[in-house]
Amino acid sequence: MSPSRSILLVGEGNFSFSASASQLYSESETSITATCLQHQEEALRHEGAAGNIQTIKDSGGTVLFEVDCTKLEQCASLQGRVFDRVVFNFPHCGRKSGVKKNRELLKNFFLSCVQVLAEDGEVHVSLCNGQGGTPVDQPKREWHNSWQVAAMAAEAHLILSAVHPFESERYQNYKCTGYRSQDKGFHVEKSLLHVFTRGLPYTSGQTLKVEEAVEGEKVQYNIPAELSDFIFRRFLCPDSVHPVKLAQDFVLKGLAEKWLVSMTTETIPYLLTVKQLQTCCCDSDGTQCYWINLLEKDFSSDAQTSTEGEKDQGCADARETPSASCATSEKVDRMRSKGVECLRSACSIDVDPDGESGLYLLRPSLLPQMEELLTKKEELIDNAGSNEGNNESEGNKKDEAFGGCNGVTSLLGVSGVVFRNVPISLWALPAYHELLLRGVSPPEKDPVKSLGHKLETLLAPYGVSLVAEQGGLRLMAQPVGLVGKLFANDNNISVTVSLNLDLLAVLLFSLPDWRLLWSHDPRFLKQFSLRPQPGTPFSPFSLFPEHFSFDISFWTGPIWEEKKFHAVVREASRGTVEQVKLIDMFSHPDLSQTSYCYRLIYHSHTHALSHTQALQFHQHLESLLSSRLQVTIR
């Protein structure tokens, strides 16, 4: 950050730091406002205070007395003013006050200073070595014995953005004072300057109404609230610099060195039918699908139209109305039973033929759309061949569909968001961007081996390794797990590559958490504006965020659907819960009830998460569980 235009200094003693800052910024347009808690007469008793105050005023600055840094909004002289930087050097309650009182001082200061802080402003807090309780403190104190500065700032929705050595030598006339409330100095060697900035406010998930054309028919449906932030984000649009797009570009560029790669521009809806999934569901798990209820047709409404699934921003809210809770017509009911039976026989997916959810689902993979695209291309080739009187073999037609020539394989690709209804854990993504590639090659070429070798060459430097399995290869990496797979079909003539672009982006740019990819904070995307090369590590804009653990216990009836519990946790916590663990279960011998106890870990790299905020989320979770899942909180 460039030198601020307006700086507020609080808790000054002899004003030597403010005077030095005034001289340092004397040739800039920066204005200094220096304040202290004492009366003017008491402040002037500090050695050198009178001269320092005069220096500040001569430099155009302002000096205010009797200003409580925990009640800045009540200071008449500060009313209506905002500052680009608020500075509090070596705060202390005075005398032999313990860590708890100083934590409280910090918390109240942070809560107050945000009232006079510019939206893009910074808060600078200097602490002696060890007080802050961050890993930068060396030696680091035990957590309970530190001032927990990052956690106290989070109470005011501030995040710790940087930690620097306190450069006392930069302020030549600075003389620290106030040791045990006396006009005595103290050691500032190895002291640290903590820089805080505002975190984005939390936004609640909302059920979104979407309109799409599925198999030639317009339908409307609701996107579940816990998934509302995963759609219409445009990460893969042509001009995107999002790391997911950079990961895709990196892979495609590497593959293009050996194969002709073309990405489809066809529109792909989020919604699939059972019939579509039936065509390629060898790896589908019905328990991990988001089954969808169609809404009663009302195309006069302002539902979001999803053409490419990525083109448009924003959706209309689907409020709780009778029309939004109705299912479909008798025709759809007949289709449901037929479609579910087909899916059962082909995929062994367990769905309820009597339920509305047996017909439609959010795409768990792009394979069905890929199959449809290939079928369309083959039909076009067939038609062209018929018009020209050609009699090609089936194998030649498939080669032409991929642009094959003289045994050289080309790859057809499609990418977009897919959805998996998975339990909450560190590397389980409910939504991610899949890159799907399909190519053909003569059997003797062993396409799985050749593509696997190329991908290993590209991705091995980032921790990805290949693991052989029947019919193909898996791409694995620690700690994220499965990042992709290759498998052959059609007698080893065609090969399919499926890659999780989100996890690849995590590996390529050393992201600490996949949830960062979905951050709305401009500081995240700014780091990728110049399209950094893979291997360039991400610099977190929120340092050392705290973990908060809460347990929740409740009684349920005879039927308990855990995936609904995880969905409510995601919604209630605004995505801040990173782990859910069942730690106890008890079935009552006389009642048809079971008690469950889960441990939830709250942690966020994207927002300021305080103990207070995490507790509010947890209490909201208890309320939602009671109202939606009819559990009894213990």
Automatic annotation (TrEMBL):
GO molecular function, one term: rRNA (uridine-N3-)-methyltransferase activity
A GO cellular-component term linked to this record: cytoplasm
Entries under SUPFAM superfamilies matching the protein: Anticodon-binding domain of PheRS
FDX-ACB domain boundaries: 519-634
GO biological process, one term: rRNA base methylation
Short name of one Pfam family: BMT5-like
Name of the protein: Ferredoxin-fold anticodon binding domain containing 1
Organism field: Acanthochromis polyacanthus (spiny chromis)
